[in-house]
């Protein structure tokens, strides 16, 4: 089960995906809403928090979630004060009932990670790509358009048309031909 606990929240936040199963994980915590009460509706135990990156809208609720569930936080940059354990590029980790491969995808932020299930069916893209060919901002600190394009192309090469679910950092998840939305994002990022 994958459930966006931030769905319908009227605040400046990212999506925050609860991935339930053998290892229950929250992918990003969002910000500026009561994530703990949203989580408690679905689970009593959280095994880990996994971060796509450390922009404030993705990590604002880390401290309250960590305290409420006595859970460790995993991310790319072990020197970041919110990250307890590092995730290396190409490292595999269990989330829900699947195994995911971490892909270091800078361009939006230096510590950005995407998580592609090893069966190729599910991708957590953070702020790399969005629905309908949208792509992450590169005008913020650590933003780099050329790196972003390379990162999108890397994920496109790792995935293929068997991708069934694209869960993005903002906006709706894409379940209707998500690979096409990623191809559109690559095209758009090269042009604009």
Whole-angstrom Rg = 15 Å
Strand order of the largest sheet: 1-2-3-4-5-6
Uncertain runs are: none
Mean pLDDT: 97
Number of helices: 5
Largest sheet: 6 strands, mixed
Domain Metallo-beta-lactamase: 13-170
Protein name: Glyoxylase, beta-lactamase superfamily II
Pfam family, one: Lactamase_B
GO molecular function, one term: metal ion binding
Task: Give the key terms.
192 residues; alpha/beta; Metallo-beta-lactamase, Chain A; five-stranded mixed β-sheet; globular
What is the secondary structure topology, with strand pairs?
Blueprint (H helix, E strand, L loop, with lengths): L1 E3 L12 E3 L5 E3 L7 H6 L7 E3 L5 H4 L2 H8 L3 E3 L9 E2 L5 E4 L2 E7 L8 E5 L4 E5 L18 H14 L6 E4 L9 H14 L1
Parallel strand pairs: 3-4, 4-5, 5-6, 10-11
Antiparallel strand pairs: 1-2, 2-3, 7-8, 8-9, 9-10
Helix pairs in contact: 4-5
How would you portray this structure in words?
The chain has helices at residues 35-40, 56-59, 62-69, 145-158, 178-191, and strands at 2-4, 17-19, 25-27, 48-50, 73-75, 85-86, 92-95, 98-104, 113-117, 122-126, 165-168. The protein is α/β, with parallel strands linked by helices and 192 residues long. The protein has one domain: Metallo-beta-lactamase, Chain A (4-Layer Sandwich). It has a six-stranded mixed beta sheet, covered by helices on one side. A five-stranded mixed beta sheet has the order 7-8-9-10-11. α4 (145-158) packs antiparallel against α5. The longest helix is centred in the C-terminal third of the chain and has 14 residues, at 145-158. It is globular, with a radius of gyration of 15 Å.
């Amino acid at each position: 089960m994958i459930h966006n606990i931030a769905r319908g929240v009227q605040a400046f936040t990212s999506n925050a995906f609860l991935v339930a199963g053998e290892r229950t994980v929250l992918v990003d915590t969002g910000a500026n809403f009561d994530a703990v009460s949203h989580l408690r509706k679905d689970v009593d135990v959280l095994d880990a928090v996994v971060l796509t990156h450390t922009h404030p809208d993705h990590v604002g609720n880390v401290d309250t979630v960590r305290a409420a569930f006595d859970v460790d936080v995993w991310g790319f940059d072990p020197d970041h004060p919110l990250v307890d354990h590092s995730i290396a590029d190409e490292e595999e980790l269990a989330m829900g009932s699947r195994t995911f491969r971490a892909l270091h995808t800078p361009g939006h932020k230096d510590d950005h990670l995407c998580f592609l299930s090893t069966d190729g069916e599910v991708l957590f893209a953070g702020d790399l790509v969005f629905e309908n060919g949208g792509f992450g901002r590169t005008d913020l600190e650590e933003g780099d358009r050329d790196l972003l394009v390379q990162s999108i192309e890397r994920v496109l090469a790792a995935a293929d048309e068997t991708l069934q679910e694209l869960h993005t950092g903002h906006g709706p998840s894409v379940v209707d031909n998500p690979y096409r939305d990623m191809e559109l994002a690559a095209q758009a990022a090269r042009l604009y």
